[in-house]
Amino acid sequence: MSHEPTNRGAEIRLDRVSKHYPKSIALDQVSLTVKPGEFMTFLGPSGSGKTTTLNLIAGFTDLTTGNVRIDGNRMDDVPVHKRDLGIVFQHYALFPHLSVFENVAFPLARRKTPKADAVRLVHGALETAGLDGFGDRYPAELSGGQQQRVALARALVFQPKVLLLDEPLGALDKNLRERLQLELRRIHQEVGRTFVFVTHDQEEALTLSDRIAVFNEGRIEQVGTAQDLYERPASLFVAGFIGESTMVPSASGAETTVIRPEHGELFPPGAELPAGFRGVPVTVRQSVYLGSGWKHEIVLDHPGHTRTPG
Amino acid sequence: MLKTHPVTRTVLWVVAALVSIWLVAPSLIVIPLSFTDKASLVFPPTGWSLRWYESFLTNPQWTAALGNSLLIAVLVAALATVLGLLAALGLRQMANKKVIAGLTFGLLAPMVVPGIVVAIGLYAVFLTLGLVGTLLGFVLAHTVLALPFTVVAITAGFAGFDARLELAAMSLGASRVTTFLRVTLPNIVPGMVSGALFAFVTSFDEVMLSLFIKSPYLNTLPVMMYSSVTRDTDPTLAAAATVILLITTVLVIAGLSLTGRKKRVTRAN
Amino acid sequence: MTETALIGGARQPKAPRASSGRAWLLLLPAYALLLGVFVYPVLESVWRSVSDPTLGLDNYVWALSNENNVGVILRTFGNGLLATAICLALAYPYAYLMTIVGARARVALVVIALIPFWTSLMIRTFAWIVLLQDNGVVNTLLGAIGVGPLELLRTNTGVIIGLSQVLMPFMVLPLYAVMSGIDLRLVTAARSLGARPSVAFLKVFVPLSMPGVIAGSLLVFIQALGFYVTPALLGSPADSMLAQSIYAQVSGLLQWGRGGALGVILLVVTVLLLAVIGLIARVSGRRGINVKVL
Known about the structure:
The structure holds three protein chains of three kinds. Chain A has helices at residues 50-58, 100-110, 115-128, 144-156, 174-191, 202-208, 226-231, 236-241; strands at residues 12-21, 24-34, 39-43, 65-70, 73-74, 85-88, 162-166, 194-199, 211-216, 219-224, 246-249, 256-259, 282-289, 294-300. Chain A is of the alpha/beta class. The two termini of chain B are 26 Å apart. Chain B contains twelve helices and no strands. Helices cover 78% and strands 0% of the residues of chain B. Chain B has one domain (52-268): MetI-like (MetI-like fold, Orthogonal Bundle). Chain C is built from 13 helices and no strands. In chain C, helix 4 packs antiparallel against helix 5 (103-118), helix 5 crosses helix 8 and helix 8 (156-179) packs across helix 10 (197-225). Chain C is globular and about 70 Å long. Chains in contact: A-B, A-C, B-C. At the B-C interface, helix 1, helix 4, helix 5, helix 6 and helix 7 of B face helix 2, helix 4, helix 5, helix 6 and helix 8 of C.
C-alpha cells in the first residue's frame, strides 16, 4: 500500500461455534482465537469444517450456536458488507463485466472514497500486486495467476483489518503457487493485517503460517506452530496429516509411537543396533531415489505389537 | 470430430443443404414477390415496381395494423421481461428443488398447451370482461404466451451467473441493493435482452389468440395478413411480409450482437 | 461431483437472502397473470364443455360419435404422424452432421435451423401458398421433370408439406441436444472392437440418440395436433384438422360447449404425450443422458 496503515490487524475470537445442517453437523463447538496480525491457516481434509468456519467469520452462513467476535465486537447481527473483511475466493470471483481497475475500485466506491484518493489507492494496490498497466484489461483477458493477484489487490485496497483467503492458490499450477506463496508472505509482513488462510495442502500451510489450526470432522484437533504440530502432534490424526511417519502401536494397543522418517534408520536383519536405538522388524516394500536421499516404503512385520530387538 | 467416410460425409452434406434450402428459402420468396409489377402472386415476377409498398403504406388499415403490432409487441416485451425477471429472482431464492421445478413448470405451461384451447377460453373470458378488441386485452393475452420465453432466458442467465460474485461484492462492502444493481443485473442483461426479443417476436407474430380477440377497430398485422390471404391474392401481402421480415431480422441481429459482445466479457473463470 | 465440491468440501453458501415469503412475493405478478389470462380461461372452456347448453357429457358424446368429428380426429392424428415422420427423416441426418462437423460449420447449421423460429408463421404459410398454387414454383419444377401439374394447395398434401416445414426446428433442436451429448469416442471404441462403421453407428450411436428421437417426435406431433393457421390456409375446409373444427364451432356456430369438448380432448391428448416426454427425460436422466427438450 502506498501509505502507512492507520491500524493493525484485528483479533478474531470464536466461542463454541457450531453449524448444523438438517442432516449433518458441519462444525461442532469450535473455539479459537486468532491474534491480531497473525497468519493463521485452517488446515484439514475435505468436509472437515475449515471452509465452514471461514464462511461463518465472513458472515456468509449463519451459525447454529456460539458467537464470533472481531476485535471484541459480536458479529451476530452484522451483515457481510459491514464486517469490513477482505476476502479472496477460491476461484477469484472477479466481476466479469468490470475492468481490472473497476474491480479493484469497487470496494472504495462502496466506501465513498473520494475519486482522487481512490485512483491513487487502486494504482498502489495494483503495483503491490505486480499488475501495473493491467487496469484496462478485463478479467477474461488475464491468466489464472494474474486474476488471483487482482483478487488479492481488490481484497486489500480498502485496508481491511482481516483478510480471509479460501484456498486462493488451489487452482494454480505448482510453480506459480510456490511463487505466490512467497508473495503472500511478503504482503502479509508488509500490511501487518490478520490473515486467515484455508487450505487442504499441508506443505502450503507449513510454508506460510505463523500458526495452524488442524480441522477434522467438524472439530479442531490442534492449534500450534508448524514445529508444534510436526514434533508434538496432539493426536494420531494430526501426526498422520502433517508430514510423513511410521506408526508403531504398543503391545497393548493403547499407545502408538510415531516415527518421522528422519528419526529412523533402516538396518539389515540381524544387524547390531547402535546404543539408544530400539528395533522394529519391518519389510521394505519399495525404495525411491529422491536426489537428496532415499525414500523407503516400509510395512511393519507384526502390526499388532512391537518387539524388542534380540 | 469423428472420422467419417468421405462418401457418407458428402451424402450428409447434400441432405443438410437440401434441408437448409427447405427451411429458409420458402420464406425468402416473399421479398422478390413484393417488388412485382403485376397484381398477382406469380413467382418469379416478370417486372419490378414499388407499387405494393405504396399500397401498403398508404392504406390506413395496413398502417394501423402495423402500428398496433409494434406498440403491442413493445409493451409485451417490457411486461414479460419485468414479470420474468421478478419470477426468476423469486425462483432463485427458493431452496426446495421440487417446489422450484413445479413453479417453473407452471410458468412454462402456456408454451405447451395448444393455442386454440387457450384462445377459445380467453375469448369467452374477454367477451364477459369487455376486453375483446382492446389494447389491454392484446397485451395481456400476448404476455401470457411470451412469459415462458423470458422466464427461460432469464433463468438461463442466472444459471450462467456465478453466485459467488454476490458474496464477493458484499464482502467488499456492497449492500444487497448495490450488489444487485452493480453485480447481478449487469451479468444477466444478455439473458434479459434475448428474453425481451423472444417476447417481442412472439407477440409480433401471434395469430391464433389475436384472431379471436381482434375487432374491426383494433387489428394486428398478422391478423390482417390472415384475413387478406383468405380474401384475395394481393401482392400487398408480400410487401407486408417483407416489412415484418425486415423488422424481426434487424431486431434479432441487433440482439445477438449485443448479447454476443457481453458474452465475450462474461467468459471469465 | 464437481471439482469445487471435492476440494472445498463445505457447502457453497448462497448470498444471504430474505425470507421465502419474499420469494413468493416476487413470483406473484407472473402467477397472477398466468392464473387470470391462462388458467382461468382454460378452466372456463372445460366448464362450458360440460355445461353449455345443458349440464352433462352431451358435448363429449357428440365429439366422439359424430362421423365428421371422428374423421377430423383421425385426419389430425394421421397428418401429425406423417409430418413427424418427414421431420424425423430429414432432421436426423441434419442433426447428425451437426455433431460431427467443426465448430464453424456447426454454428452455421444451428443458425439455419433457428431461422424459422424467427420467421413469422404467417409469412411461412403465405410463402407456401405462393409456392404450391397451381401455377406456382413447385408445379413449374414438377412440370420440368414431366410430372404434374398436381393439385397441391387446398389439399391434405399441401397441409403436410407446410406442417413438416414449419415444425422442423422442433425436431432438429432436441435431436441435436441429445446427439451432442453422446461421447463419439464410444463409436470409435466400437470400431476398434471390430464393428464396421455402419454397424458401430447403428448399434451404438442410434440407440444413444433415441431419447432425442422420441422427445423430438412427440414435440412435433403435439404441435401438429393443435395447429391452426397452416392447415386452415393450405388445406381445404373439407379435410380440416381438429383446431379448425374447434375454431368453426366457437367462432362460426357459437357452439361453446362443443368447441370446448373438442378442445379438452386435444388438451388431454397433449398432456398425456407431454407426460411421456417427461418420463423419458427422467429415465434417460437416470442413465446419465441429459434430455434438454425445451
